[in-house]
Write a structure and sequence with these properties.
- This protein folds into three domains: 30 residues, no CATH class; 46 residues; 40 residues, no CATH class.
- Helices cover 78% and strands 0% of the residues.
- The protein contains five helices and no strands.
- α1 packs across α2.
């Protein structure tokens, strides 16, 4: 029915009506033209295909993000495991008479560690960045 028009009366929520008006003004077109274009798009046979393609792209991006996150978590776990294994194999046992001094030294080392960790998390470089630059340089 190109060229003929039928008058319809619809009710829109206030915020949706405002968004429609703002969009029409921004596009320098009528609200009717915006509604017609939206309905054509929504009712067209390929609308579901376009929606499926858009969702598929988003899911692919999320999958890549999760894979990258999984790699970073695995890297963190392995780094921590190697550190603990090394620490347990080289750290001498503390005798009872050295216990207080060892605790004080442990607190000092912990505070330095937390400070260094905070600085790296805020300013970098991160371990992953260092590893990739080391790998690129090899």
């Amino acid at each position: 029915m190109t060229g003929t028009h039928t008058k319809r009366s619809i009710r829109l929520r206030v915020n949706l009506a405002r968004r429609l008006a703002d969009h029409a003004i921004a596009r320098r077109t009528s609200q009717t033209a915006v509604i017609e274009a939206a309905l054509e798009s929504f009712l067209s046979p390929d609308a579901s295909d376009r929606l499926e393609a858009a969702l598929s792209r988003r899911l692919d991006r999320l999958t890549r993000d999760f894979e990258r996150l999984e790699w970073h978590v695995a890297l963190s776990n392995e780094t921590f495991a190697l550190f603990v294994r090394n620490w347990l194999s080289v750290a001498p046992a503390v005798s009872d008479n050295m216990d207080q001094a060892a605790r004080a030294q442990g607190r000092e080392r912990w505070e330095r560690f937390v400070s260094a960790l905070s600085q790296r998390m805020e300013q970098g470089p991160r371990l992953g960045e260092e590893m990739s630059s080391d790998r690129d340089g090899v």
